[in-house]
UniProtKB/TrEMBL annotation:
Signal peptide: none annotated. This is Cation transporter. It is found in: Membrane. Its main location: membrane. Keywords: Membrane, Transmembrane, Transmembrane helix, Transport. GO terms for molecular function: cadmium ion transmembrane transporter activity; ferrous iron transmembrane transporter activity; zinc efflux antiporter activity.
């Protein structure tokens, strides 16, 4: 794992604290239940970013006697935790929205609240794009989950700002908590998506179809001398893709020659795919199944 990933994760905690401060101040000057809900979600953002940083540090540890395949799945645990925190935030927002609907009141100093919340939203918007870009480039589930989480916060804040514009115009104070409740539903849906994707990683879900297609292509192009490859299996663990398959070679081929083919395939994977771990089981031609990957 690059130092860039860890630096971005650490910076995410600091950005979260800054956003929380701005949103808390916006709620304090307005008394808006929607802004209170927005600030409550930002508390979850800070906790989730800290969890992501911890998970990235754990996943960067090398394999040891008790974890011989490494610690990469720690990132998925962080993403699951983040999904749970998003759900908690959504339920908390719903509760505050309900209480505000029962006792509605017009926000005080709405312009000042909008400016503070707008600054926090702009900061969050820029930072979530950074997290998503770096997370995808580094294949980090923790950073991607953190970016998606912050994106829901941006959506929440935009909705709140929209409500601030409409409440003074309509003179309807119930609009403030009603808007907070509607946005909470979107937050809840995003939290469910985070948990679903992360559980797939913990359950050793296969690599995406486009990645599997590239794996088959690499084997086909660089296994000259072999007959076929079958029983291809893949799984993701954080940024690592594990690839396993059986390689069928002529029965009279020497072990050294078969080993050279395996080395050539592994070298091709190393150049084309970052962080791929390949396991190849060599078999004689009598084990051919005449299906799977055809060697060109």
């Amino acid at each position: 794992m690059g130092r860039k990933t860890l630096w971005v994760a650490a910076a995410s905690v600091l950005v979260g604290i800054a956003v929380l401060g701005l949103k808390t101040l916006a709620w304090w000057v307005t008394g808006s239940v929607a802004l209170l809900s927005d600030a409550l979600e930002s508390i979850i953002n800070v906790a989730a970013s800290a969890a992501a940083l911890l998970a990235l540090n754990v996943s960067a540890r090398p394999a040891d006697a008790n974890h011989q395949y490494g610690h990469h799945k720690a990132e998925y645990l962080s993403a699951v935790l983040e999904g749970v925190l998003v759900v908690i935030a959504a339920l908390t927002i719903m509760r505050e929205a309900y209480n505000g609907f029962l006792d509605p009141r017009l926000p005080e100093q709405p312009l000042k609240g909008m400016m503070l919340n707008g600054a926090a939203t702009a900061l969050n918007g820029v930072w979530c794009m950074v997290l998503l870009r770096v997370g995808k480039a580094q294949r980090s589930p923790a950073l991607v989950a953190d970016g998606k989480h912050i994106l829901t916060d941006v959506v929440t804040s935009v909705g709140v700002l929209g409500g601030f514009v409409l409440v003074p115009i309509t003179g309807w104070p119930q609009l403030d908590p009603l808007l907070a409740g509607l946005v909470a539903l979107n937050v809840l849906w995003t939290g469910w998506g985070l948990m679903k994707d992360s559980v797939g990683g913990l359950m050793d879900a296969a690599a995406p179809p486009e990645v599997v297609a590239r794996i088959r292509e690499l084997v086909s192009l660089h296994a000259a001398g072999a007959i076929e490859a079958h029983d291809l299996r893949t799984r993701h663990a954080g940024r690592i893709t594990f690839v396993e398959f059986h390689l069928v070679v002529p029965g009279g081929m020497t072990v050294a020659a078969a080993h050279d083919i395996c080395d050539r395939i592994e070298s091709a994977f190393e150049k084309d795919m970052d962080d791929a771990v390949i396991t190849i089981h060599v078999e004689p031609e009598g084990e051919a199944k005449h299906r799977g990957v055809v060697v060109l």
